[in-house]
Amino acid sequence: MRDFLKALPKAELHLHIEGTLEPELMMALAERNGVRLPYASVEEVRAAYDFSDLQSFLDLYFQGMSVLRTAQDFEDLAMDYFRRAADEGVVHVELHVDPQAHLARGVELATVMEGLGRARRRAERELDLSTAMILAFLRDRPAEEALDLLERAAPYWETLDAVGLDSAEVGNPPAKFAEAFRRASALGLARVAHAGEEGPPDYIREALDVLDVCRVDHGVRCLEDPTLVARLRDEAMVLTVCPLSNLRLRVVERLEDHPLPAMLEAGLNLTLNSDDPAYFGGGMLDNFLACRRAFGWSREVFLGLASNAIEAAFMSEARRAELRERLAACR
Ligand SMILES: [Zn+2]
């Protein structure tokens, strides 16, 4: 089964590029840039990855990215991840990027976008990995800042596929960002948003109604609301579920208790993703393997999930056709 899951062409729709920063690279970049970290070794960084909920994780996440200073750093960060992903049979990665977190510490948008852009072109060329980019707004920051970021990103609109909404969910409902998402829509950008991870089902409904999203990131709390589940099913709304992330952030205590099987049973359009793989105990393959162990899913189930991701991905139709063929070859 491991060989099958590794060979399965996996498209990753929910990944934060800053969340791919492994302790080894964090230490190397800290040294290269003369950034002082409160850790003396890779082991100490790993030990610090002992957060208990979304907020304690976010504190560590923002501290870790302090080592990212130059375009080269961002290129190295993304290439480091793309290589690992390609090794696990990932064929397409859609990266969320959080520019506000970098702007706030004096790193220019151009530095971030140029570094990531170079890595994306290299991934295509060197690894046969297609990529897409999602400009994410930090929802615990003011709405005007999101709008301002979108305008500042004008030189990069062409390279963006969507806008997204991430960071601390509770108390920051989707409607707060109605204007920024309207503007993104006017620019022809797709919209996605984190909703229903720690926040209530109403946030999912709001993301659909107010932000007009084409995908909901996480969405696991939809099960608390049968009317919402019926709507998500009828609209075939894509949910990007992140099992190991939910486990690590204590959305569930054991993976066996995860709502994924119930969501599958309800006929929802599900995909499996890694979210922040450096922090949550594994990449795409680990997430697939963990689901196999916890739920005993058959090949057929995994083929279905992989197919959902390929169909929902931001990619050219030529690439989609190619990946459909590769998926069919796994049957
Ligand atoms: Zn996420």
Automatic annotation (TrEMBL):
List the GO cellular component terms: cytosol
The UniProt note on the cofactor reads as follows:
Binds 1 zinc ion per subunit.
> Which keywords appear in this protein's UniProt record, sorted alphabetically?
Hydrolase, Metal-binding, Nucleotide metabolism, Zinc
Which residues does UniProt mark as catalytic?
A: 197
Record-listed E.C. numbers:
3.5.4.2
Q: Which SUPFAM superfamilies match?
A: Metallo-dependent hydrolases
Which cofactor(s) are needed, names only? Answer: Zn(2+)
Record-linked CDD domains = ADA
Biological process (GO) annotations?
adenine catabolic process; hypoxanthine salvage; nucleotide metabolic process
Q: Does the keyword Zinc apply?
A: yes
One of its Pfam families is A_deaminase
| Entry binding sites for Zn(2+) | 14, 16, 194, 275
| Boundaries of every Adenosine deaminase domain copy | 9-328
Q: Which residues bind substrate?
A: 276
**Gene Ontology MF, one:** zinc ion binding
Catalysed reactions listed for this entry: adenine + H2O + H(+) = hypoxanthine + NH4(+)
Query: Which residues make up the annotated site Important for catalytic activity?
Result: 218
Q: Which domain of life is it from?
A: Bacteria
**What family, per the record?**
Belongs to the metallo-dependent hydrolases superfamily. Adenosine and AMP deaminases family. Adenine deaminase type 2 subfamily.
Q: Which NCBIfam families match?
A: aden_deam, PRK09358.1-6
- Supply the HAMAP family for this chain: Adenine_deaminase
What job does the chain carry out?
Catalyzes the hydrolytic deamination of adenine to hypoxanthine. Plays an important role in the purine salvage pathway and in nitrogen catabolism.
| Record protein name field | Adenine deaminase
Which species is the source of this protein?
Halomonas organivorans
The taxonomic lineage of its organism, from the top, reads:
Bacteria, Pseudomonadati, Pseudomonadota, Gammaproteobacteria, Oceanospirillales
